[in-house]
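Lab notebook: predicted structure, single chain.

Context: the supervisor wants predicted structures on file for every construct in the current expression panel, including those that have not yet been purified. This is the next one on the list. No modifications to the sequence; it matches the entry in the shared construct table.
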Amino acid sequence: MKEKISSLEITVDKSHIINIGERLYEQSIELIRELVNNAYDADATRVDVTTSENEIVVADNGEGMDLDGLRQYFSVGSNEKLVNPKSPRFGRDRIGQFGIGKFASLAAASRFELFTQKGNFAASVIFDKAQWIEGGESWKIPLRFMEPDRKRGTGTTVRLVDLKRSFRPEDLEQKIAEGVPIRARDFSVYVNGYRVTARTVTGNRIPVLHGTKYGIIHGEVVIIPAYRASKNDMGIEIKVKGVTVRRELFEMASWGKAATRIRGEINADFLPLTSDRSGFIEDSSEYKAFLNAMERTLAEVRRAYNQLASARENRRVSRAVKEALQRIHRALMMNPEFSPFGVVPLAEKSVKGVGETGVEAKETKEASDEINVEDIEGDVPQGSDEEDVRQESQEEKPAKGKKPALRIATPNAVVRRLKFGAAGVTCCLDHLGENGPECMTEGTIIYINRDHPLYKREARKKEAHILNIARLITQEISLMKNPENPREAFNRQSILLRDAFEEKA
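Prediction complete. Output recorded below exactly as produced.
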């Protein structure tokens, strides 16, 4: 038998094209984003989006289209932006998609109207869904040539008429801010007359810059303040050509509450995208190189977060120990016989008293008759609160006898001094390990262990935290008075605590 060779005509149903568009743009609001991106590709410097109950208008001042441009615009799956990836005027990286957005727009509106002008060419196209489908096998849509409007200038205007759903301006602004290169130079977008600006996030900024053989990765990650932490919009936006493709958590999903404080934008234009531009081709070598770079970035973010958390905790601890020492100072003024440094004299009226051991106060800012609680002078340990945490200065005037050296186990120790004239006690709250002592004294230095289970339990609430610190400090001060009689020391501690926390009438 002889073979007969013929051919089959491939046809595509019009409704199927619309269905494909609907699937690619499940949210109709995505269409507005694409229309704005088309204006960006056309070298527009301004795009105005106007929304009302029945229609949306997207007008730009880009280069517009001539007849060939219109043919290419309505060509399904055109590769024009792949062949010419740079815009002619500004050399922008064209975002480009599938050329099917105008068909998908008919899922959100009954009619798609377009007016464009370029040079001496001006034309309008009305793409009515019902008429187009009723046209049977004909794929033609009406094109109307018009007289150029010199006042209008070059550009394109698209109207979506007879909307099937309404669009809130704030939703449009958010989608445009995420899905359009809004930070690009010589480019601005307005929604109902208000300019869309890139969202700014306050907090601790960590710049990101990595070089790979595929291209540059750049952007920043922000650790927002704790009071602004939220599960909304958490994660890092991954952008390609200025457009957010996906928001990622990476390994931060295991960070717990810490992840709610992380925001960021990372640009990696070399990443290959899936056909619907909603994700990345994850088995590609480009994406694997990107993940390696992000792993290093997140390790740096984690270190920065831990430092911020330590500094914040130190400020909280410093405030608690300061209040505890203020209360103890008041109790010692009421019970001067309990002072391990001797009886506290009263100052004469002409001299401000500070409750110090036989030493008259000098007329200085520190010599106040109210409270004499100080930071220790000297360098600030790394990672501690600059106002509340200081190390003891080696340049202080030497006192009689050898003083014990202050031993700081970690750079996050909180140190404060309660002075009694030339003498006093130094309080050091440090991390000494869960199995370490709750507190201990070396000379006039009182160490409190912040890792002790009881301390950590009491530190959860402010009042309990202050009371527990005062309990430990008064315990050690009472033992300094007469260490050979601990029972009497505990009685003194009980009175000091009572007077320290007795509310004033």
